[in-house]
Amino acid sequence: MTPQASIHDARVAELIGAGALFHQRGWVPATGGNFSARLGADRMLITASGWHKGELTPEAFLVAGMDGRPDDASRKASYETLLHCQVYRFDARVGAVLHTHSIANTVLSRRRESIRLSGYELLKLLPGIQTHDVTVEVPVFENDQDIPRLAAKVDDAMKRRPGGIPAYLIAGHGLYAWGETVAQARHRVEALEFMFECELHSAI
Fold first, then answer.
1. Of 35, 55, 189, 202, which sits most exposed with the smallest number of CB within 10 A?
2. Are 36 and 4 in contact (CB under 8 A)?
3. Which CB contacts under 8 angstroms, 24+ apart, belong to 87-90?
4. Rounded CA gap, 143 and 87, in Å?
5. What is the pTM of this model?
6. Any residues with CB less than 8 A from the CB of 145 and at least 6 apart, and which?
7. What is the pLDDT of residues 24-41, one digit of tens each?
């Protein structure tokens, strides 16, 4: 096995594990959500369209360029692939992007223009944060079936936020979070989903 094939197989295994965990938690119902991992400067691994995220197998993944086009033209990438591409192009340190559809993130994103998280210990799992005594704003973008246009809006917002955006929500749709590794991205999703659930309960 070549080193590149070994990396590919390792990322597949990590993403399958994330899918199983997220489905168990109720964060990726049916075929909702999509996951990706960087394979190199110009290639990523991403879930193909139509796969149940709690039942992923190695065949559920395809390799695509950073323009979103699958290397195998006969395969169909997720409709939202360009949102993953945007994050990878924006920050070369990002190694994985994970997208979930939980009840908490869906309901909150329909109610608010942004989600302000303050005082949570789990904030320390987000980039650059060393204490719970901060406020982090997770922006909410209006849902848009024109994915290139939505990706451009996200990119513009990231460029205008000097401190960076740790994750974002699409209204009524779900969460996008990322990290330097699949494990780090998964931990951030878990932390954010926990805090979103707390926010949802506190608003009741």
1. 202
2. no
3. 87/176, 87/178, 88/36, 88/38, 88/44, 90/155, 90/158
4. 17
5. 0.94
6. none
7. 999 999 999 999 999 999
